[in-house]
Amino acid sequence: MAGNPKDETNGKAQSTSRRTFMRLVGVGAAATAVGTASTGGAVGAEDTVDLGAEGLRNGDLIDPYLEEYFTDGNEVQIPAGEYDYTGDGLGGDKADCALVGSADGVTFNRPEDPEVEVRPTIMATDGTVRIENITIRGKRGEAQSRWRVGAEEGATMEVVNVNVPDGTIDGSDSTGLYAGTDHAGTLHCKACYFEQMGNVAMYVSDAYTGGDGQVVVEDCVFRNINSSMLRFAPTDSVVRGCYFEGTEEPPSDHTGGTTLRGIKVDDAGTGALIEDCDFYFTRGSNPIRLHYRGEDGSGTIRNVRIYNDGDSDAIQQDWDTEGSWAGEAIHLTGSGNLDVPEHFETVTGDGAEAPNTDYSVWTPVDGESSGGSETDAAPVDGSAPQASDLVIRASPDNPDTNCDVTFTATEEIQFGDEAEPGTDRITENDDGSYTATSVEMNPDAVDSYLVSGTITAFSVTEGYEVSVTRDGESVTLDDLVDDQDRGNGEDTGPASLPNRIEIDGTGDAEESAYYDFAVTGNLTLDEGRTVVGSGETLWLTGDISDGKVSGHVRNGVDAFFYSGTLKRIEIDGDSDVNVFHG
Questions:
Q1: Which of 43, 286, 427, 487 is placed for a possible disulfide with 32 were both Cys, Cβ 3.0 to 4.6 Å?
Q2: What residues contact 536, with CB distance under 8 A and at least 6 apart?
Q3: 541-559, pLDDT tens digit by residue?
Q4: Does residue 470 contact residue 543 with C-beta atoms inside 8 Å?
């Protein structure tokens, strides 16, 4: 099942079949964001440089173009293609600039000799520096090739959709990204992919012993990395929405040894957070280890799903972490060692959720900068729709975790003064509409947006409440959602249920496919698209009103409208699953 999951998701619908778990964080990002590539000026770059217009062609050495143009104040756009590189021009001290590859695909090819060291150091000295949409091809050798990244105090370094799928040769000490002791600002790594490396993929713990800059690792994928996939420690740092897999032997390091470990917390930073992550280990060592060097540090591990077939603890503590590290909603499955610290709150047995194992190697994102603060609400010309101020307030009676608010508008959405661009998300959809997601709307939390056009969908995680004002006036959710522009003659669902899922079993007239899934919002049967096979009956179990359902389909299609996001889905049998985001 997990050894060969789907590795690419493109377009608005995605499919999978046969005993598959879908990692829906990656699916959602790919479904709504493919085709975007611009930072939108959010990093503060004053000028835009198109390297295609400057003469760069497919197959060229890109280094001299980077040396000339990837400088302070420039947003440098790379056209789709493959380019040779040695790292020259990529590194250096940078301020308020961006290097943005086309969402259609940009590849940097290393020198053919893996022993050629490629070792740029990229330091953000002021404002925000962003590197986005680049895949590095070619194995790294024994020489310590890596990208060293970081930011000075008050500055932000962003590494977004930078992918290393080829790994290293056997016996290599090369790593992926490294943040040294001089990192004192914010480092945000998002939607990156690492596989088959002989040493740590993301080594960001050393910052603790120096500048102790914050590190945010979000929606990244780590597969079969030797040593620890992520070394993590700095104060107030975050690992969120990431996937860690140990299913194959990784290359050895320079000592000849191999270890498969997910996260190692190996310094004593305080206030760390590891949440909404998935760990799938059929071999190797600990999915998470709280290392003895992290003694006196503190943090929280919550809402994680761990499958472990190995002999090592699922979460190992090398010191007594009670009172320092908390564990909440730790879901444990697998036939191996499921031990965690005794004071952690765990879910086991039938109630435990299995990890989501689907992933994407290439995940362009919306281009919003986590370091940006400008909203620029003014319309670009007199014909543009006037943006209205939308303020969302969480009820003080809400539970303290897991409340998300999602809404879609026909025109552009921008972050308002009280939004959190580093956590909340805005994506442009294939049809030109925009979707915003406020994450973790805990009690009394407030988020604000500037919204143009019509709001066509609004959903809140079930069991939570929010109040909304638009241009200072209170509005009900029913009044807020206007479905006058939905449909255009097509069979769409209610405005409050913008998404659709179809379990398609039309390819097999003999065998049934059994399915079980749950969503964070509301759910209802799409009667117009549900097709019952000849001689069959519609067979559903579960309380659909609670956002979950089980059923089977044979030579037919079961279709549903839903709001929110898919939390989990399991398919047993021969069928396709198509997910459409409204």
A1: 427
A2: 554, 555, 556
A3: 766 767 888 888 888 888 8
A4: no
How far is it, in rounded angstroms, from Cα 329 to Cα 450?
Answer: 35
Please give the distance of CA 501 from its chain centroid, rounded to a whole number: 21
Show Cβ contacts of residue 562 under 8 Å, excluding neighbours closer than 6 positions.
497, 499, 500, 501, 519, 521, 522, 523, 524, 547
Q: Which amino acid is at 320?
A: D
Nearest to 355 by CA among 30, 25, 578: 25
User: What is the b/e burial string over 126-148, where b = at least 16 CB atoms within 10 angstroms of the residue's CB?
Assistant: bbbbbbbbbbbebbbbbbebbbb
Taking the C-alpha atoms of residue 493 and residue 419, their distance in angstroms, rounded to an integer, is 29
Distance, CA of 411 to CA of 470 (rounded, Å): 16
Q: Which residues of 447-477 are buried (b: 16+ CB within 10 A; e: fewer)?
A: bbbbbbbbbbbbbbbbebebebeeeeeeeeb
Closest C-alpha among 191, 103, 34, 28 to residue 580? 28
pLDDT at 38 > cutoff 50 = no
Could you write out the DSSP letters of every residue in 547-564? TEEEEEESSSEEEEEE-S
> How far, in Å, CA of 270 to CA of 264, rounded?
15
Tell me the pLDDT tens digit for each residue of 215-233: 999 999 999 999 999 999 9
Please name the helix (run of DSSP H) or strand (run of DSSP E) that holds residue 30, with its range, or none: helix 24-33
Residue 503 CB partners (closer than 8 Å, separation 6+): 513, 515, 551, 553, 557, 558, 559, 571, 575, 576, 577
Integer angstrom CA distances of residue 362 from 192, 227, 493 = 8, 24, 30
C-alpha to C-alpha distance for 35 and 353, rounded to whole angstroms:
33
DSSP H stretches of helix in 404-523: 477-480
Q: Three-state secondary structure along 344-371?
A: CCEECHHHCCCCCCCCCCCCCCCCCCCC
d(CA 215, CA 221): 16
Contact (CB, 8 A) for 46 and 76: no
The residue among 69, 86, 87 whose CA lies nearest residue 78 is: 69
Quote the distance between the C-alpha of residue 423 and its chain's center. 11
Q: For residue 378, what are the CA distances in angstroms to 382, 384, 385? A: 10, 9, 10
CA distance 273 to 11: 32
If you count them, how many residues does the chain have?
582
Q: What is the pLDDT of residues 149-181, one digit of tens each?
A: 999 999 999 999 999 999 999 999 899 999 999
